[in-house]
C-alpha cells in the first residue's frame, strides 16, 4: 500500500469511528467529531515537530495507526503558544517562537500524565542546517569527569524527554532533519523497512571493532570480553561477520580499505550492526600500520553506504560519533548514516566522550536484550539496553571507573541517543525448533529434524572462536601491498565457519541428512527458512571419535 493510501485508509477509519484525525486541529476534547462528554482516544505515540513538517508526517501517522496505536502530533507552535492546551494545534500561519528543552519536557509530561504514552519522536535537528530552520533542542546532561580527559561539563541528550507515563517510561527517538524533503525521505525509509522483503539479513550481525589502545590491561580486558561475547553470548542461530581493525588480528582487513569494507558489509544487510572502539564527531578511529595511519571510516564515506535490503539498527559504541549539535548544523557521523535514505534504519550513538567500561557493559546488555529478550521495537530495545546495564557489570572493569559506577551508567543512558523512529518494529527472524539425534560418531552423516515445511538452508559450522584454515604471516617489511593482501586473505579464512551447506525442501517430520563432519569436536547446525519473513534456529552437535 502506498503512502497516500495509508493516509486515506487511516482517515476514513477514524471518521467512521466519529473521531478526529490524530494530531489534527480537533485534538482537544470538544473538537470536530467529539461530543462534550467524549474524550479523544488515549495517545500512545507522540510526534513533536514544527507545523512546517505536518504534511510530510501524515504517512507516518497512518503507519502507526495501522499498527494499532493512537498517534498524535504536537507542534512546536502549540508548545510555545502562551494559552494553548498541550495537545492543541495552532493555525499553520502562526509564527514559530524558539522553543526550549524545558518547554518540550513540560509538554511531554502533560501528555504522559493522562495517556499511556509509549513512544516520542522528535522531528527536527537541534542545530538546523539552514538559516531560520526550526530547531528542536536537546536536553542537557551533566558530564562525569574521566581522569586525564578534557571534555565539556555538559552534553546534549534526548534522555531528558524520556518521562514516565501511564504505560511506563517513554522511548524517545529523533529524526535530525532540517527540510521537508529530509522528513519525507526518513518517513519513506521507515515504512519501507517494515514492509520490505525478509531473508538471510534478518539473522545477520555485522560487527566492527577498532583497536583499544588504552593500556595493555584495558586492551586485554576489552578483547577478552569481545571474544566471549562472540563465541558464548550471541545465540548461534545468528550469523556474525566481524572486522577488527587491528593489523595483527586474524579478523583484520587491509588497512587501506577499512571504510570501504565497512560500507560493503553494511550493504549486505543485517538485523543489527555495531562499531566499538574510538570515535570522533565525523569519523571513526585511525589505525597504525608501518608508521602510517589509516582511517577506519569517516562521515563522508559512510554517509554514502547503500543497503538495498535489510537496513540494520546501527550502534556506535564510541565517543562523539553522535554529537548531533555540531556548530553550524554540520552532520555528525551518526546523523550522516541515518539521514542517508539507503543507510541504516536507526543509529544509536554517544553525543560526547563515553567511558570504555560503560561501553563494554552496554555491549553486554545489547547482546542479552536485543538477541535473547528481543524487545519488539527499536525504542523499547534501546530502553531495555540502558535499563539492563546494572545487570551486566564486570567487577574487574570497575577498577577503571571514576566514582560511583551507577553514576557512570546513568551518564551513559543519557549520552547515547536514538536517531530513528522509536516505535518501529524490529524485523527479528522467527524462531525455529531444530533437533539432532544426540552425539554423532566421526564419519557418520548428521541427521537433523526441523519443525518446518518448505524451503530451507542448513549449514554445519564450527564454533565462532575456531579458525578452520591456515593463516598467513603478515610481512612486517617489503611491499605494503603484499601485507594488505595477506590481511584480506586471513580475514576471509577467519570468518568462514561453514563446513557444509545444503538447500533443501523440508517436509514436516522428515529427517534431513547432512554430510559427516571432517573431524571430531563440537559443531553447530544452523537452519534458515525462506519466505516473506524467514525463521532461524540452531542446535549443537557433538561429533565423537
What does this structure look like?
The protein has 545 residues and is of the alpha/beta class. The protein has three domains: 185 residues, 3-Layer(aba) Sandwich (Rossmann fold), CATH 3.40.50; 222 residues, Rossmann fold, CATH 3.40.50; 115 residues, Sandwich (Immunoglobulin-like), CATH 2.60.40. It has 13 helices and 27 strands. The strands form eight sheets. A six-stranded mixed sheet has the order 10-9-11-16-17-18, sandwiched between helices. Strands 19, 21, 23, 24, 26 and 27 form a six-stranded mixed sheet that branches. It has a four-stranded parallel sheet with strand order 2-1-3-8. Strand 14 and strand 15 form a beta hairpin. Helix 1 packs across helix 2, helix 6 runs parallel beside helix 10 and helix 10 crosses helix 11.
Short description:
The chain is an alpha/beta fold. It has helices at 3-16, 54-66, 76-80, 101-114, 180-195, 216-233, 258-267, 299-302, 333-339, 356-373, 378-387, 405-415, 480-495, and strands at residues 45-49, 71-75, 119-123, 139-142, 154-157, 164-165, 168-169, 171-175, 204-209, 239-244, 272-276, 279-280, 283-284, 286-289, 292-295, 313-317, 346-350, 416-419, 430-431, 434-436, 440-441, 446-450, 454-462, 498-506, 511-514, 521-529, 535-544. The termini are far apart.
Amino acid at each position: 500500500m502506498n503512502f497516500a493510501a495509508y493516509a486515506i485508509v487511516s482517515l476514513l477509519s477514524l471518521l467512521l469511528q466519529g473521531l478526529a484525525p490524530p494530531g489534527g486541529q480537533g485534538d482537544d476534547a470538544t473538537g470536530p467529531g467529539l461530543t462534550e462528554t467524549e474524550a479523544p482516544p488515549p495517545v500512545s505515540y507522540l510526534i513533536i515537530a514544527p507545523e512546517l513538517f505536518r504534511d510530510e508526517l501524515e504517512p507516518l501517522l497512518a503507519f502507526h495507526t495501522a499498527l494499532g496505536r493512537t498517534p498524535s502530533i504536537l507542534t512546536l507552535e502549540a508548545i510555545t503558544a502562551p494559552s494553548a492546551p498541550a495537545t492543541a494545534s495552532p493555525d499553520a500561519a502562526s509564527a514559530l517562537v524558539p522553543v526550549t528543552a524545558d518547554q518540550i519536557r513540560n509538554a511531554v509530561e502533560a501528555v504522559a500524565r493522562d495517556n499511556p504514552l509509549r513512544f516520542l519522536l522528535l522531528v527536527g535537528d537541534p542545530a538546523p542546517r539552514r538559516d531560520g530552520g526550526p530547531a528542536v533542542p536537546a536536553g542537557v546532561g551533566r558530564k562525569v569527569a574521566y581522569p586525564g580527559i578534557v571534555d565539556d561539563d555538559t552534553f546534549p541528550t534526548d534522555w531528558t524527554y524520556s518521562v514516565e507515563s501511564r504505560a511506563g517510561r517513554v522511548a524517545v527517538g529523533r529524526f535530525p532533519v532540517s527540510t521537508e524533503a529530509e522528513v519525507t525521505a526518513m518517513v519513506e525509509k521507515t515504512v519501507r523497512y517494515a514492509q520490505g522483503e525478509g531473508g538471510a539479513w534478518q539473522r545477520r550481525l555485522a560487527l566492527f571493532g577498532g583497536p583499544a589502545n588504552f593500556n595493555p590491561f584495558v586492551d586485554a580486558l576489552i578483547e577478552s570480553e569481545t571474544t566471549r561475547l562472540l563465541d558464548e553470548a550471541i545465540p548461534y542461530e545468528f550469523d556474525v561477520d566481524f572486522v577488527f581493525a587491528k593489523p595483527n588480528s586474524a579478523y583484520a582487513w587491509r588497512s587501506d580499505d577499512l571504510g570501504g569494507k565497512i560500507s560493503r558489509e553494511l550493504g549486505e544487510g543485517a538485523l543489527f550492526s555495531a562499531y566499538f572502539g574510538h570515535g570522533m564527531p565525523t569519523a571513526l578511529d585511525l589505525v597504525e600500520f608501518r608508521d602510517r595511519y589509516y582511517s577506519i571510516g569517516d562521515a563522508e564515506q559512510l554517509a554514502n553506504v547503500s543497503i538495498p535490503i535489510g537496513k540494520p539498527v546501527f550502534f556506535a559504541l564510541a565517543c562523539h560519533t553522535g554529537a548531533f549539535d555540531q556548530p553550524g548544523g554540520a552532520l555528525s557521523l551518526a546523523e550522516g548514516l541515518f539521514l542517508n535514505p539507503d543507510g541504516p534504519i536507526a543509529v544509536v550513538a554517544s553525543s560526547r566522550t563515553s567511558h570504555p567500561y560503560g561501553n563494554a557493559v552496554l555491549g553486554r546488555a545489547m547482546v542479552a536484550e536485543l538477541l535473547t529478550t528481543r524487545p519488539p521495537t527499536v525504542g523499547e530495545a534501546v530502553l531495555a539496553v540502558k535499563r539492563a546495564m546494572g545487570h551486566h557489570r564486570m567487577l574487574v572493569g570497575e577498577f577503571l571507573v571514576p566514582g560511583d559506577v551507577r553514576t557512570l551508567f546513568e551518564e551513559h543512558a543519557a549520552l547515547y541517543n536514538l536517531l530513528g523512529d522509536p516505535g518501529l518494529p524490529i524485523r527479528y527472524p522467527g524462531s525455529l525448533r531444530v533437533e539432532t539425534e544426540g552425539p554423532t560418531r566421526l564419519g557418520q552423516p548428521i541427521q537433523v529434524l526441523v519443525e518446518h515445511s518448505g524451503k530451507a538452508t542448513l549449514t554445519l559450522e564450527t564454533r565462532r572462536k575456531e579458525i578452520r584454515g591456515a593463516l598467513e604471516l603478515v610481512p612486517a617489511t617489503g611491499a605494503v601491498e603484499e601485507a594488505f593482501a595477506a590481511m584480506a586473505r586471513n580475514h576471509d579464512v577467519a570468518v568462514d565457519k561453514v563446513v557444509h551447506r545444503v538447500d533443501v525442501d523440508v517436509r514436516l517430520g522428515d529427517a534431513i541428512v547432512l554430510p559427516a563432519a571432517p573431524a571430531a569436536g563440537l559443531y553447530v547446525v544452523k537452519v534458515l527458512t525462506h519466505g516473506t519473513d524467514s525463521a532461524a534456529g540452531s542446535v549443537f552437535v557433538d561429533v565423537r571419535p
